[in-house]
Amino acid sequence: MEKTRAVITGVHGWVPDYILTNKELETMVDTNDEWITTRTGIKERRILKGENQGTSVIGTESVKGLLEKTNTNPEDIDLIICATVTPDMPFPATANIIAHNVGAKNSFSFDISAACSGFLYGLTMGSQFIETGMHKKVIVVGADKMSSIVNYEDRTTCIIFGDGGGAVLLEPSTENVGIMDSLLHADGSGAPYLNMKAGGSRRPATMETVAAKEHYASQEGSIVFKFAVNNMADVSVEIMKRNNLTSDEVDWLVPHQANKRIIDATANKMGIGSDKVMMNIEKYGNTTAGTLPLCLWDYESQLKKGDDLILAAFGGGFTWGAIYLKWGYDPK
Questions:
Q1: 275 shares a domain with 208
Q2: Which residue out of 22, 82, 256, 259 is catalytically annotated?
């Protein structure tokens, strides 16, 4: 019996119009363009401005574009999963809002919070609904409005993050394409090093937590960097070995866009040349759950049916993982 796999049949991304350059950041915080570029590879990032503009705006625009590109009726969508750490509100789920905005009346929907690894988690979960035969059309969204939780007086974080995201459509296929394997990990001991200290049930919002600026993303940069370099590289190599893939056989590495040095270290450990690494960090920065779908969107025209891709990410939690997939269609 032929195995049914979940295959990506379309991808679309969306970023806000406003561009926050390194030069503008120089006027806001003690930093400079050369320092940022050398250490991160980032030149600019997009910022979602305006009142009542949440992550659902990014997700909605991504899904609308996806439905149009794939000529899909929104009422045929069975499930929408949104990976985000910046939901519009604690509840309802941002995925619920996106589903309503696009007219996906027959879908159920929920959010996943796994920081920068969220899209990998969502893609793995969505593929399982397809593989079991429960659903035929699943949309996975990765999107974040990181500007909403960034302290622009903290140069260790404000230079890194931007707003944006994307979405993919998963459908069943019995061809030798689709999501072939995944490896996901988590280690809660990393929680103190990359987090948002207040705003949850442990430390609900008070005048004191706001005054202490505890509602912003916080990280211990050197510790996070070390964990990210080791774990993102190791899990990428592990999934290659598990599927008997050589570096020559990998057509593309699709890495989380956190830091160019982390990306380079991962590619080097895999034996992958820079010509086979998707990178757009210079123009979007780190959009957290949005980086992987934005990469796929940017490089879609270069992908061919059957291409072997390794998707890899590392995020707060700590969370990390990799997915091996065979691309499902030729450029359109």
A1: yes
A2: 256
